[in-house]
Amino acid sequence: MAIFLNKMSKRETADLTMAMVNSGETIDLSEIEGIKVDKHSTGGVGDKTTLVLAPMVAACCVPVAKMSGRGLGHTGGTIDKLESIKGFSVEMTKKQFIDNVNRIKMAVGGQTADLAPADKKLYALRDVTATVDNVSLIASSIMSKKIAAGADAIVLDVKTGTGAFMKTLEDSFELAQEMVDIGTNVGRNTIAVISDMDQPLGYAVGNALEVKEAVETLKGNGPEDLLELCIVLGTQMLLLAGKAKTEEEARKMLTETITSGAAYEKFKEFVMAQGGDVSVIENLELLPKAQHIIEVKADREGYITRIIADQIGIAALILGAGRETKESPIDPAVGIIIKEKVGSYVKREML
After folding, report:
1. Looking at the predicted structure, is the pLDDT value of residue 351 above 50?
2. What is the pLDDT of residues 262-309, one digit of tens each?
3. Distance of alpha carbon 110 from its chain centroid, rounded?
4. Which of 27, 72, 178, 207 could form a disulfide with 332 if both were Cys (CB 3.0 to 4.6 A apart)?
């Protein structure tokens, strides 16, 4: 409560973060060759960025050693999405994880309960004392897990808008700055990017639907906003890893992984390495499908001026795409596909 009322200095925030890091195990990635760069998103609606970004960056020979959690909210986390693919598993030994990154330049593992356990206890305490909404506490919570996961450098994707945790640009900048300051204070190269979450990212919201859209993006047929965000984040990852000297060079390298098919092939390699059925990636019709598909048609004409992202997220959660509690089951098949974005002209269709 004292922190909530009086706030913390940069040094105090960094010290709290490292105390949480050291409350449990830290992952040593020194056996992985090269500079390990991690990406963290503050979460949003239809955010399947890791599924596209990680293979793009790995195809540029930058190691991506990612620890991900399961989602709590409108859709599953990265692991839940990947588990829509038959056979895919994040269960592996530390040696298998490191070997996969050295061999194919990417792996996604599950966060263990021993990673920054003090953060979980403090969060539970904040939850019941109405002290969640404090930038220093939010930033140290996020960064403690990223630092414990062992990356050399961190790129942060801080969302802003109706579908984001931070609803205003001002709040998003404040959180981004706080997290970058923590990273810098503890000796990690850290960069933050503010990205739009006033409407869903891409068109698909829901686990298998997002895998399908991610694969289409890797094949060069995906939504422009998703690909552009991945290129922006990937550019920073390549710069931090020392693989590119300029943003222009990094963008060119990342774009080439899509046009050449290298990122798509890397994703297939990654899925196979973690027990997934690659035929599902080659034939996306094999992904889980919803039993019932209902079209919702426009009842009037005009330009779309606003899409309230969090309400679409809540609708997907009610369908079963996300979790209300940690014990809630997820249905990988369900979700929502929006057909148009803000600025599009929509004609009235007879219902």
Report:
1. no
2. 999 999 999 999 999 999 999 999 999 999 999 998 888 999 999 999
3. 14
4. 207
Predicted pLDDT of residue 80: 92
Instruction: Give me the pLDDT at residue 350, please.
Output: 52
Which residues lie across from 302 on neighbouring strands?
346
Does the annotation count 119 as an active-site position? yes
Integer CA distances (angstroms), 75 to 156, 205, 268, 310, in order: 20, 7, 23, 11
Query: What is the pTM assigned to this prediction?
Result: 0.93
Q: Does the annotation count 40 as an active-site position? A: yes
Known catalytic residue: 141? yes
Region 179-208 average pLDDT? 95
Q: Which of 23, 41, 84, 141 is catalytic?
A: 141
Cα–Cα distances in Å, from 1 out to 132, 134, 135, 244? 10, 10, 13, 45
Cβ-contact 182, 17 below 8 angstroms: yes
74 is catalytic: no
Q: Which residues contact 111 (CB under 8 A, 6 or more apart)?
A: 67, 68, 69, 145, 149
Task: Give the list of residues 6+ apart from residue 46 with CB closer than 8 angstroms, or none.
Answer: 75, 200, 201, 202, 203, 204, 205, 210
Q: Looking at residue 165, what is its pLDDT?
A: 83
- Residue 204 tokens read as 């698909």
Burial state string for 17-29 with b = 16 or more CB within 10 A and e = fewer than 16: bbebbebbeebeb
Angle at 133 between CA 81 and CA 166, to 5 degrees: 55
Arithmetic mean of pLDDT, 74-101: 91
Strand partners, 256: none
Phi, psi of 273 (to 5 degrees): -65, -25
Query: Of 66, 145, 243, 323, which one is the catalytic site residue?
Result: 145
pLDDT tens, 216-272? Answer: 999 999 999 999 999 999 999 999 999 999 999 999 999 999 999 999 999 999 999
Which of 39, 40, 66, 74 is catalytic? The answer is: 40
Q: What torsion do the CA atoms of 310, 312, 316, 317 make, to the nearest 10 degrees?
A: 30
Residue 79 has a pLDDT of: 92
Backbone angles phi, psi at 330, to 5 degrees: -115, 140
